[in-house]
Amino acid sequence: MVLVLKWFVATLLFLCEAQGFPKVVRVLNNLEFTDPKPEFKEKYFSQILDHFNYNSLGNGTYLQRYLITDQYWKKGGPIFFYTGNEGDIWAFALNSGFITELAEKEGALVIFAEHRYYGKSLPFGNDSFHIPEVGLLTVEQALADFAVLITELKKELNAQECPVIVFGGSYGGMLSVYMRLRYPNVVAGALAASAPILSTAGMGDPAQFFRDVTADFENYKPACREAVQEAFQKLQALAQQEDYARIQSEFSLCKTPSSAADIHQLSGLLRNAFTLMAMLDYPYKTSFMSSMPPFPVKVACDTMLRGDDLMTALRETVGIVYNSTGTLPCLDIYNLYIECADPTGCGLGFDSLAWDYQACTEIEMCFESNSVSDMFPPMPFTQKQREQYCAKKWAVVPRPGWLKTQFWGDALSTASNIIFSNGDLDPWANGGVRKSLSSSLIAINIPEGAHHLDLRGSNPADPDCVIQARKKESEIISQWVQMERKESRGLTL
Ligand SMILES: *[C@@H]1O[C@H](CO)[C@@H](O)[C@H](O)[C@H]1NC(C)=O
Ligand SMILES: *[C@@H]1O[C@H](CO)[C@@H](O)[C@H](O)[C@H]1NC(C)=O
Ligand SMILES: *[C@@H]1O[C@H](CO)[C@@H](O)[C@H](O)[C@H]1NC(C)=O
After folding, report:
1. Do 253 and 266 contact (CB within 8 A), yes or no?
2. Percentage of residues of the chain with pLDDT beyond 70
3. How far apart are CA 176 and CA 197, in angstroms?
4. Tens of pLDDT, residues 65-81
5. Quick check: CB of 59 below 6 Å from ligand 1?
6. Atom of ligand 1 at shortest range from CA of 60
7. Ligand 3: does its nearest atom lie under 6 Å from the Cβ of 331?
8. What separation in angstroms does the CA of 321 have from each of 215, 263, 269, 295, 331?
């Protein structure tokens, strides 16, 4: 999903090891732009392993990683806490410049907390993804981690009176919402950017996601959708004739495909490139989740519509994602993309295992493509298929409906102090809350925004709509902080 820290993490780790953390890049002429790197300190917190069972692991603990900076903190200032999602926490910290910009304005302490089972926060080290060790990977445990971490750090820093605002993007945004629902005693308000809280709780249309991916390309040029669809149809025709040698040469595959399963894998990999370009359709060059040129959807369509050979065009278009370095000798379909319980992709490495497990348990993503409402080959993913896959892979049976029951489903209107921001370019947007539900449950829609663009730092290429969205978010958050101060003063007097 969403998520999703795909092969990007590998790149990030590489950068970290090779040259220290990526430096601020502000080369305005070619629009290469990384959010400025605040001076985070990396720390570890001794966290309870199992918050909900006092017997099985007793008071056992693991080390949870978090990043913290007090460079903007003024005495009594608020705490801005990022509820980490499915990946290495540095990736989120380095791509959420809005939070530190706002911290500077509000005199806030900033904390980015890593989600258990991701990055370096592995409760059982390299055994974390064994059965039954993986069993402590749940949304509820992750939320309890955040609540305990906030409470303990406030004590340690003598910051008991400081209002806490949570921030998150994508699944991290879902966690921010849930923090406000579950721990309103700890959290005064939440900015949930691009949080698909409805679609991932099984509410919505299974065809929505890939329909909206398609719409991004179609809205740029209707011919683009037609070209992609036709290229996939040509591939399907070759597959039907079992002309595997031709498929290998058309797509520069490392190995000759030899079965319907291989073609399914190839189709998944091709579809995933379009998913990423739609999600990450930012107006400047980025390297979050994947290395992307400015306006990747436009670049993709221009590539798709160049020349007459549609399959060559399709290969070159997915190359924008998989071959961004221009050095990939051939497409290794099983290494560049891993099929999992999330049809929008799970990424690679340990993080992909963790996300796959979550998609097999609480997070529901039975999204399909069908070649009618979208431009992709028909690739159904039903609850039944999910069940079979998850039983085999993790020995678990998913529980459809649980997330909806646990986190209020579409009956959120009695909650308070949550901003639901979404970008119209983001295929996740219509799986989230698009209309305000009350005067303190505020939807902000960003017409030219991709996946949580508003969380990123200011950039000269930002469209006006995201500048306005950040301004509104900043005003609302500032009000929450003031309100919380008044309330707590009222109580202590
Ligand atoms: C767990 O609690 C027991 C009993 O109080 C104590 O002896 C032990 O040191 C604790 N272990 C840890 C890891 O804190
Ligand atoms: C754990 O796995 C990682 C990645 O596969 C590897 O680099 C590391 O050496 C392993 N650590 C241990 C203690 O085996
Ligand atoms: C990757 O890009 C380079 C440079 O454009 C090209 O020569 C190579 O064929 C591409 N690899 C694949 C698998 O398409």
Report:
1. yes
2. 91
3. 11
4. 999 999 999 988 999 99
5. yes
6. 13
7. yes
8. 19, 19, 10, 13, 12
State yes or no: pLDDT of 20 exceeds 70. Answer: no
Look up the pTM and report it. Answer: 0.92
Residue 45 pLDDT more than 90?
Answer: yes
Buried b (16+ CB within 10 A) or exposed e, 465-477: bbeebbeebbebb
pLDDT band at 29 (very low <50, low <70, confident <90, very high): very low
CB distance 324 to ligand 3 below 6 Å:
no
Looking at the predicted structure, is the pLDDT value of residue 22 above 60? no
Nearest-10 crossing angle of helices 310-322, 244-251: 50
- Rounded to the nearest whole angstrom, what is the distance from the C-alpha of residue 457 to the centroid of ligand 1? 44
Q: Per-residue b/e over 138-163, b at no fewer than 16 CB within 10 Å?
A: bbebbbbbbbbbbeebbeeeebeebb
145 tagged catalytic:
no
**Binding site membership of 323 for ligand 3 (Cβ less than 6 Å):** yes
Residue tagged 């080959």 (tokens): 377
Q: Which atom of ligand 1 is nearest to the CA of 61?
A: 13
Kindly give the distance from the C-alpha atom of residue 28 to the centroid of ligand 3, in angstroms, as a whole number.
Answer: 27
For ligand 1, atom 1, the nearest C-alpha belongs to 59
Q: How far apart are CA 417 and CA 472, in angstroms?
A: 14
Ligand 1 atom having least distance to the Cα of 59: 1
Q: Classify residue 301 as left (phi > 0), alpha (psi -120 to 50) or beta.
A: alpha
Report the alpha-carbon distance of residue 257 to residue 133 in Å, rounded: 36
Computed over every residue of the chain, the mean pLDDT equals 92
Alpha helix locations (H) across 243-363? 244-251, 260-279, 296-304, 310-322, 333-336, 349-360
Whether 373 is catalytic: no
Residue 254 CA: which ligand is closest?
3
> Could you tell me which residues come within 8 angstroms of residue 74 by beta carbon, excluding any fewer than 6 positions away?
107
Residue 452 falls in the annotated catalytic set:
no
Strand partners, 64: 45
